[in-house]
Amino acid sequence: MNPDILQRFLCFVAEELRLPEDDAEAIIALAEENLVSSFAKLDATLAVSDAAAAREAAHALKGSLRNMGLDDLAQRVGELERGADEGSLQGCREILEELRRAVGPLRTAGLERNTI
Fold it and tell me: What is the pTM of this model?
């Protein structure tokens, strides 16, 4: 995964959403909150091996990542979604952990700014 995820997200916020830099902290905090919730939902569905619920949770996370301008991560979640849609949760936990590592810089940025 791309190590400059925070920079990519901030560029998306500035260039695509055209939000002022002053709003970056609030945007990072909202993104982190959304991602934490999405990961928790996926964790819960995987814990009970509920493929249908995992597919729904993955679909929501994929949309969130696309809305953040992180299409490469959204594509990875799409793999999880497709597997769950086919009734297979094999490899889903690994994808989820990979995604957690990838979005880690967003969380670190929020903590450093004391916004999360």
Answer: 0.80
